[in-house]
Amino acid sequence: MSGKLDISELVKILISIAYPELQRLEVLPYWGRTSCFAQIRWDDAKNQISIRFNKNVKKWHEAGIIGLVSHELSHPAQKGAGLSELETDRDAISRGFGPYLAIERVYTGKFEDHLIRRGKDRYLGYRSIRAQLTQLERQQLDMLLSQIGLIPAKPSRPITMSHDVAIVDRKTGTTLMIEGHKFLIPENIRNPDIKLLERDCVTYVYADNILLGEFREEI
């Protein structure tokens, strides 16, 4: 792709080549305001999937955006709930997006694995992803890094912005999952604007300005 990136077209291309489970579904990606890099929502029947991407992600190289998109698509594409970040990363890698996912982790400041749920789940960091790539994929990754001019390194200042939010509509209610923490969204909130406010290492989670709960950053 060249010129101004069309996020809808990019998502269609990735689904057509690597996500047969989603090809008959209505997938609605769009740019918007969000407190994380991406916010994805789907229901148990997976009739419709919506993905809101942070407008600041537009500044990334396309390879990094592909990595983020693949991670988001791998959430609902998996069998089961699709709420494990580790299994979501592994799914994206298994579909051939490992080099792109590694670049995305450089942009999101995850050089090492990011532990969540008290170590029961994690986002794979750049180094772990690279270790899982084939020799050909590592060559592809190095070529992309050279083209972009990125040098993978542990950031001197950790990026505190959360990676993504997953929202699943179920018959029992709507669940929001962020950093391994689950929150229940009230029934009267249909298309929530999720905001995260951090104070003294505690993150407060809001849906349409209604406080859902809080969690503390895990070390």
What amount of the residues lies in strands?
25-35%
Counted beta strands = 11
- Shape from CA axes? globular
Strand order of the largest sheet: 1-3-2-6-7-8
Number of domains: 2
Largest sheet: 6 strands, mixed
Characterize the quaternary organization of these chains: single chain
Mean pLDDT: 92
Which stretches are low in confidence, meaning pLDDT under 50 for 5 or more residues running? none
* Helical content class: 25-40%
Give the helices and strands as they follow along the chain. Answer: HEEEHHEEHHEEEEEE
Instruction: Tell me the span between the first and last alpha carbons.
Output: 39 Å
Tell me the Rg in angstroms.
17 Å
Estimated structural class: alpha+beta
**Individual helix count:** 5
Overview of this protein structure:
This protein folds into 2 domains: 7-148; 162-216, no CATH class. The protein contains 5 helices and 11 strands. It has helices at 7-18, 62-77, 85-107, 126-132, 135-148, and strands spanning 26-32, 36-43, 48-54, 114-116, 121-123, 162-170, 173-178, 181-185, 194-199, 202-207, 210-216. Strands 1-3-2-6-7-8 form a 6-stranded mixed β-sheet, with helices on one face. α1 (7-18) crosses α2 (62-77) and α3 packs across α4. It is globular. The N and C termini lie far apart (39 Å). The model has no long low-confidence stretch (mean pLDDT 92).
